[in-house]
Each structure stands twice: as structure tokens, then as C-alpha cells.
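Dear support,

I submitted the protein below through the web form. The confirmation email said the job was done, but the results page showed an empty box. After a refresh the structure appeared. I'm attaching both so you can tell me whether what I see now is the final result or a partial one.
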Amino acid sequence: MTVTECRPETRQRTYAVCRLVPETTQVERQCTVMVPQVQKRVEQYTVCKPVWREERREYTVMVPHTEMRQGTRRVCRMVAVQETRTVCEDQGHWEERPVTTCCQPCPPTCAPAACEPAKQVATCRVWVPKIVQKQVPVTCMRPQWVDEPCTYPVTVCKPEKRVCTVRVCHYEKVPAQREVCYTVCVPKVVRRVENVTTYKTITEQKTCNYTVMVPHQVQKEVEVLVCKLVEKKIQVPVCAPACCQPVCCARPCRRGC
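What the results page shows now:
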């Protein structure tokens, strides 16, 4: 059978390439440059000169003065006051009473019956108290606040004008001059030779190889599957004609054919 196949094939082609080639040339140019130059000039200016002078000025000071003023003050005084108080007074009296005493001191081991002959009876005076309360007038001192006039000193500052002499500085404007150096830029024309680079375009032809796939028709042998009919014998069961109906030939008979 005929089959189409692609085979690689090498071919050649030519194309144009552009290349920039630099070229340097010298060019003379005229340019202007600024050259610094020092110059001198005279300037007029004003100077402030200090001038001192004496001036009389008045000023006010506060001078302290002492003044006597009248006022009222509170004074505490002791005042006699008559009061009645309750006091206790002993209005008792003296009585003479008999007292039994021993002639000599008895030892601690002495029995009471043994000291009876030695005891004596004596008379002594005894004060019998009698407390009686009564009202008694009493004079006592009580504090009492009283307002009374008084004179006291007060320091008062009064303004007083005075005169003093002070030195005052005044500035006077005085004209003056000076020489000043300054720098100016003066234009100057100069000629210079400069290198200028230009680029030139050059076209070149180049050749290159490339590969393409070219279709071709080729005769090839191909294996093909073929179906053939082969004769084969098989056995098929057949029913008896007496016991079965025509339908029995299509299916097995169940009646014992």
C-alpha cells in the first residue's frame, strides 16, 4: 500500500544583516566659557558710633515712715465676784473617857487572867467630831475681756521723688568708605578640538542552513486480518412425529417424547 512519510531535508538560505560601525573624527568648535576675574571697588557705608553723655532723671522710691495710730484692743482683767459656797465645819467637843491600861508591857505569852491585877484605870480627853454644812460668802477673781483704746506704731511706705545722674549711650551714624574685592565671571570665546564619534550602518549578506520536513509517498507491505469460513459439522436433536406437535421442534418436549 502507498503511505505518506515526512523526511528531514537540509536547505540553505541567504539573509541581510545590518551592523553599526563607529567612526571617530576630530571637529573644531568655537565655545564661550566664563572666566572668573577679581576686581576692586569702593563702597560707601554707615557706621554707628557710640556717644556717652550724662542725663538727669527723676525716679520714685518708697520710703518707710513710722506712724502712730489709734486702735482698740481686747484686754483680759480679773474682776472680784461674790459667790456663796457650801463648806463643812467640824462643831465637835472634847470628852473625858476612862481608859484601862497595864502598868508594864506584857509579854506575848502572857495570859489575860494574869494581867488583871496589873491593870489601872485612867482618864483621857477624846474629840468627838460633829460635821455641819453651812453657806459661806466667798470673793473670787473671774477673767473678763474688756475693749480699751490703744496707740500702736505702723510702718508706712510713702512715695518720694529723687533725682540722679546716669550715663546714657547714644549711637550716631558716621559715613565711611572701604575698598572691597569681588569676583565676576567674564565671558571668553575659545576654540576647541573635540573627538566626535558617528556610527555607520553596513549591510552584510549571511548564509544559514535549516531543516524542513518534506512529505514522500512510499510503498509498504502491511499485514491485514482476513476472515475465512471453515466447514464444521454439529449434531442437532430431532423429535418423533407421533407424540409432538410442530411447536415441539422449537423447544425440548416435556411429555416423554
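Response: this is the final, complete result; the empty box was a page-load delay. The radius of gyration is 82 Å.
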